[in-house]
Fold each of these.
Amino acid sequence: MPDAEAPRLLCVEVYGSKPLSYMTETAAGLLERLARTALFVPTTTRTPEQYGRVRLPGPAPRFAICANGGRLLVDGVSDPDWQDRVAGRLAGECAPLAEVRAHLLAAADPAWLLKERIAEDLFAYLVVDRALLPQGWVKELSEWAEGRGWTVSLQGRKIYAVPRPLTKSAAMREVARRTGAGLTLAAGDSLLDADLLLAADRAWRPGHGELADTGWSAPHVDVLEETGVAAGEEILRRFGAAVARSGEARGLARDGARGGAEDSSRDAA
C-alpha cells in the first residue's frame, strides 16, 4: 500500500537485539479484547524458548501450545503429564529421532544446507538455500519418512521432519477437554497448521503462506484475501465476531431453557 496509508505497527518480538515480528496497533487492541472474553491459546511450531521471545498484548495466556503440539504450557510451564503422553505415543508409533536425524544429515548436501536443528528432542529441521535445493529431494525424503511414521514439509527455507502423531490439533483438543470449551476457532498459514484448522469448529487461512501457495482449503475454513499484518488484523476481527455470536447463542439457549422450565412447572402445578 502507499506509505502514507500504512498502518502503525507494534513490535511483538525481538531477536538478536533487533525487532523481528509485528502486528498492527489495531490488531493489538482486538487481541487484548478477545483475550478478555475468550480463551486465547497461542499455537506454534516454535520451541518454548523461541515462543518466549514473543510478547503479545493483553493478559498472559493461561495455555500455549509449542513444538507443534509436543509441549503444552500451563501458566508458562510445560505440563509434565502431556509431555509424558506425547513421548509415549511417539516411542510406540514412530522411528527414533536419532535415526531420522542421521538420515537427514547423510542425505543433505553441504552446498545448500545452512543449519540443522533439533527441537525439544521431538523433531528435526534443516535450514537450506532453497535456490540450490535439488528438485525432488523433499519428495524422496517424504517417501523415506512415511514408512517410519514421520512427515516432511518444506516451508520457506526450512525442511521439517516431524513425527506423524505430533500435531497441534491433538494439543488443542486437550486444552478444549480441560477447559470444557464448546467452540474452537483457529487460524494458520503453514502446512503444519493444516491439521489444526481441520480440527477446529471454524477456521481462517490468510492469503499468504504455504497453505495459500498450494491452494489448500476445507469446507469450514474461510480463505482471506488479506496478507501479512492486515491478515492478522482481519482474523482477529473474525475471531471476535464468532465469539460474540457464540455468546449470543448461549444467551438465547439459556433464555429458552428458563422458559421451558417455567412452562413445565406451570403445567405440573
Amino acid sequence: MSSQEIPEETLPSEQGAAHSAVERADDPFADPGLPAHRPRVQDIDERAAKRSERAVASLFLLSMLATVAFIASFVAFPVDKSLYIWPLGHISILHFSLGMTLGIALFGIGAGAVHWARTLMSDVETAAERHPIEAPPEVKAKVLEDFAAGAAESGFGRRKLIRNTMFGALALVPLSGVMLLRDLGPLPEKKLRSTLWEKGKQLINMNTNLPLRPEDIVVGSLTFAMPEGLHEDSEEFQVEIAKAALMIVRIQPDEIKDKRELAWSHQGIVAYSKICTHVGCPISLYEQQTHHVLCPCHQSTFDLADGARVIFGPAGHALPQLRIGVNAEGNLEALGDFAEPVGPAFWERG
C-alpha cells in the first residue's frame, strides 16, 4: 500500500512519531495509554443522578425490609411445617423463608453499593507509579488528599438519603446472625426436670413388655425398664424414653455402701437412670463383680454400689436413682419421679 492510499489523518505528522509507532508495534508490553474519559449521564444530568440515588436508597431499603422479614419468619414459622413449591417439592417453610429473606437482604446491600459506585462515584481512571512499601511523607499526604477527594466525589456527605439508608441496612443485617443464635435449640424450660415416672407406675421390662417382679431380677444381671403406659409405637416414645429409660440391678444389701441408695431399693434391687450424665448416651455395660457400669461413648464409669457416683471419665455427676417398691400384685413400681433431672447438665438446671 502506498502513502497515497493511506488516509491523511492516519499519517504521522513527524518522523519521531513514526519511529514511536514502530516501537509500540515491536514491544508487546508497551503502555497503550488510557482512553479518553467519557462522562456518564449522571455526571451531566442532576435528574439522572437523583434517579440513581433513589435506586441505591431503594436497594438499601429493600435490604432493611428483608432483614425484618427474616426475623419475623424466624419467629412466625414452626420448624416442622412444610410447603410444596414447584419444582423444589416439599420443603420447610422456615428454611425457605430464612434463605430467601437473608439472600435478599445481602443482595440489597451489595447491589446498592455496586450501583452507587458505578453511577455516582467518580469513574475517572488515574495511573500511579509503583513505589517502595514504605511510603514517603508526601505520598501519605497524597493518599489522604485522594481519600478526601474521593469522599467528596462520592457524595457521601451530600447525599444523605443514600447515607442514611445504607447505615440502616448495615445496622439491621447483623440482627440476622443474632437471631440465628436462637436456633441453637429450644429453651428446655421445665421439660428436662421431670419424666413419666410417678408414684404407682409399674416397671415394664423393655424386652418382654411385661411388669417386672422382684424374682425376675437376679444378682449379676442388668435389666432395662420403662414406665407403665409408654409404648414403642407412640409418637412421643423417643422423647420420653430418652428421659425415663431405667436400668435395674440386684446387689446384696450388705454390699450397698450408700445409705440413701439402700433405703430407695427393694431387697437389694436398685433402679438408676440409664442416661449418662456426660452427653446423654445410653449406658449398657455392667461389670457384676465390681457393680460398675460403663458408658460406651466416652467411658464414664459409675459405681452402682455407692450411689452411682462417677469413678472415672468426663461425666459431671452421679446417675439419678429412682425410688422403687412393690405393689399389691407383687410387681415393682416407682414411688415417685427422679429426685433430680436426668442426663447431662443444662444451663437452666440451676
Amino acid sequence: MTTIDNNNDPAPNPHATAEQVEAALKDTKLAQVLYHDWEAETYDEKWSISFDERCIDYARGRLDLILPDADLPFGRAMELGCGTGFFLLNLMQSGVADKGSVTDLSPGMVKVALRNAENLGLDVDGRVADAESIPYDDDTFDLVVGHAVLHHIPDVEKSLREVLRVLKPGGRFVFAGEPSTYGDFYARWMSRATWWATTNITKFGPLKAWRRPQEELDESSRAAALEAVVDIHTFSPEDLERLASSAGAVDVRSSSEELAAAMLGWPVRTFEAAVPPEKLGWGWARFAFGGWKRMTWFDDNVLRKIVPPEFFYNVLITGVKPEK
C-alpha cells in the first residue's frame, strides 16, 4: 500500500517562471524545489534509473560496501531526499527493509517516488519534507538512507541531528553518492568539456542530425544554472565523519568509490544529454553500462589499493543513534 501521509503537501511546479528562476538563484531551498520539480518526470530517464536487477544490485552494493555485516531486514526505513525513490525502493526490493517512507523538498519528486513504489507493489508512504526539519516523530525508523542528498542541504549537521532524532535507539543511517571535493572538480571539468565539444561539433554538416533542437539545449543550460545553485557542498571522507560525530552519531565510518568509473560516466551522461535520444540505441547502452562495470572492477580491484580515498568521486557515510 502506497500513501501520502500529509494531504497539505504542496503540489509540484514543473514549469517555473523566469521570475521564480531568478529568485531561486539567490535562494538555495527555492532552487532545490524548482530544479527538482522541473526534473522529476524525466529524472529516471536522464540518470538511467530503473527498478530492475541492474539498479537493485547497484543500490544493494552501496549498502554492502559501507555496511557489509548488516542484520537484515530492517523494519521501517526512510529515504531522505528521495528523488524518484531510486535508493530506498531498490534496497527494499533487495530485502533491506519491510516498510518505507520517502521524503523530499520537491513535491514533484515525492509524487514520482510514490508512483514508482505503487507500481512495484511496495509498502511506502511519502511526505514533502525539509531535511533540516523532518516531519516524523522521534524514534520512528530503524534505518534512514539517502543517495546524493547531503550535498544539497545547507546545514548538514542540523540535518544529521534530525536523522538521529527520527531513528530508534540503535538505528542506523547510510548515505551514499556524496561528491568528494576532488571528484567534483574533475567531474565538472569533464562534463563542461564534453558539453562544449558536442554542442559545437554538431553545428556542422551531417553531424547536425545529432544536434538537439536549440530550445532543448537552452532549457538544459537553464537547468544547469539552477544545478549550480542546488549543489552546495563537496566532502572528504573525514568531513562526513566529523559532521556525523558532531551530530551525535556513534560507530561512524566512511568509504569511497568510483574513480575510473566516474571519469567514464560523467562524459557519457553529458553526451547523452546533448544529443537526440533516438540516436542512441542498445549498442550505446551496452557500451555505456559495460564500460562502467569494467571501470568499477578496475576501481575496486586496483585503484582502491593504491589511491587515497579522497580522490574517488563518491563518499559514503554511516553511523548509529546511541542507545538510551
Amino acid sequence: MTSDRTHRPHRVVVLALDGLLPFELGIPQRIFGRARDEHGRRLYEVVTCSVRPPGPVQTDADFAILVENGPEALAGADTVVVPASYELGPVYEEGTLTEELAAALARIRAGTRLVAICTGGYVLAAAGHLDGRPATTHWASAAHFQRLFPKVRVDADVLFVDDGDVLTSAGVAAGIDLCVHIVRRDHGTAVANDVARRTVVPPYRDGGQAQYIERPVPDPQQSSTTNARAWALGRLQEPIQLRDMAEQEAMSVRTFTRRFREEVGVSPGQWLTRQRVERARHLLESTGLSVDQVAREAGFGTAQSMRQHLQAVLGVTPTAYRRTFRAELSTACGQ
C-alpha cells in the first residue's frame, strides 16, 4: 500500500463541448468522484475542460456552465471522457473534426484511456479512434452512426462496449453503467458496489438497449417478472429451471419467457448466466475460495462449466481473471 505522500489519484479529464447535456457531463464526477480506497482516499481526480480557454460553455438547457480549464488539461489525463453534445456540427453531419476540436484532441497523450458517453462516440470516431473497433451509441443514432463511420463495428443492442483502452456507452444513463464498470475494472467489485450504493443506482443493469426501444405499451394489468428475478438471485448456487422462475409469477413458461424478454431485453437463461458470471467475478476478486468452490457458489456446478461461461463473457479463464485482477489492483494501489 502506498503512503499518503505517494498516493496519486487516476486523473479523469471530461471534455465539455457546446450543446452538451448537463446530466451526462455530471456523470463522471458523480461516479468517479465517489470512489475511495480502504483508507478513504480518492481514487480519481476529475477535471472538466473545454476546447477553448476558460470560460462559458453552452448546454442544451437554458443555462451555460463556466469551465475553468482549457484544452491543455487533456495533456495530463489518464482517462479522457467525452459526454454527448447536441451541437457537434461537422462531427455529426460529416464525420469530420473542427480545427478547434482536432487541436484539443491532439494534446491527448498516446495510451490515454478514451471514454465516450452516448453521442460523444461521434467525436472518437471522427478522430479515428474507433476504426476497426466495436462500439455503441444511443440506439436512436446507431444507424446514422454506422453509415457515417462504416469502419466502426456498431453494436446497438448493448449498454456499453469495453474494448480495452477505448470504451463507449449507449444513451444518457448508460453512461452511469459504463463509469461504474470502469471503477469495477480498475478497483474491483467492492469499490464499484460502494459507489453504486452511494449513488443509488444498480451496480450492474440487466439487459441491453432493446428494452428501451419504443414498442407497444403492454397491458398495465400484466404482471412483471420482478419477483422471479429476486427469487433467482437469492439462490444462484442452486439449480434453477425456467419453469421454477415462471412458477414464481404464476405464469406459463411461454408467457413468462415473453414477458421477461420484454422487460429485461434478454432471455431468462441469458440473464441467469450473466448473474452467475457476476457472482463468480465477485468471489474470484474478493475471496480465497478455490475455482471449484467458486463454481459451486455461483451456480455453475463444475469448474469446467464456469470456465466455459467466463471465457465466453470475459474472454479469460477464472484463474487468469483472478491473477490479472489482483495484479491490476496491486498496480492501481501502488500508484
